[in-house]
Amino acid sequence: MDIISVYNDFNFEINKAGGYVSGPEFNGISKRAELKFLDWISGKATGEVPQMYTNQKVRDWLSPVIKPQPLQVTQGKITKPSDYYGWENAFLMGDYYKTADCDDEDEEDGTVVSDCNVPIELLTNSAFYTRCQSDIEGLAPSFKKPICKMVGKEIEFAPKDLGSITLEYVRYPVFGELKMIIDPVYNDEVPDPSTSLDYEWSEYAREFIIWFLIDVFSNSTREQALKTFNQASKP
């Protein structure tokens, strides 16, 4: 989505209340607006809608920032990637004894199917330790039923020697950024379309990003009338 057009739309809206934001000021507001949009679209911790994956539209909106990352489990752990924002899923890679439909089978009866990756179940800490101490087949962690839990910046796995896995996670977006140049005719600072960094989001996000931009701006300026108008026009 073209960041310059969003910048122009945003300034058009706040101009109604006598406001204006320069390019450098816009970049700070824009980053906060993108973070608010990501928080909202991925399911706010407060429980406000839309919750992640309640419908296909939400899944489609979030898909640009879902990232698959091959990783190697070392001593039962991996470190979260630096751009990690939230959990999506993880699976164990490799060849396993499975039937053609990926149902579990004994090694004597099954066949090796390379593309049947084994999902890794994310658990709470207490559930993880309960499963690790279980002797019940199907509950104890194994290569057919691997489990994991989060500990700070790391994810811990059982069994510990899983080897190669793929972590699919919600990453932070590459934030849009305006780059400014001096207009040679009017000697004004204007956005440079050749160096500005557009948003990763598609056009579906325009109204939402602009709404969050106005919300951040009105909060910082204490422009109550603009905030009230913006609340009334929430997408």
Please give a structural write-up:
- By secondary structure, the chain is an alpha+beta fold.
- Helices cover 31% and strands 23% of the residues.
- The chain has 6 helices and 12 strands.
- Helix 4 (125-132) links the parallel strand 7 (121-122) and strand 8 (147-151).
- The protein is elongated, with a radius of gyration of 24 Å.
Topology, element by element:
Elements lengths: L2 H13 L7 H19 L14 H7 L3 E7 L4 E3 L4 E9 L3 E3 L12 E3 L4 E2 L1 E2 L2 H8 L14 E5 L2 E5 L5 E8 L8 E3 L6 E3 L14 H16 L2 H9 L3
Parallel strand pairs: 7-8
Antiparallel strand pairs: 1-10, 2-9, 3-6, 3-10, 4-5, 8-9, 11-12
Helix pairs in contact: 1-5, 2-5, 5-6
What can be said about this structure in brief?
The chain is an alpha+beta fold and 235 residues long. The chain has helices at residues 3-15, 23-41, 56-62, 125-132, 206-221, 224-232, and strands spanning 66-72, 77-79, 84-92, 96-98, 111-113, 118-119, 121-122, 147-151, 154-158, 164-171, 180-182, 189-191. It contains six helices and twelve strands.
- The share of residues in extended strands comes to 15-25%
N-to-C order of helices and strands: HHHEEEEEEEHEEEEEHH
DSSP strand tally: 12
Q: Identify the overall geometry.
A: elongated
Spatially, the strands of the biggest sheet line up as: 1-10-3-6
Helix content: 25-40%
Q: Summarize the main sheet.
A: 4 strands, antiparallel
Low-pLDDT sequence parts = 104-110
End-to-end separation in angstroms reads: 18 Å
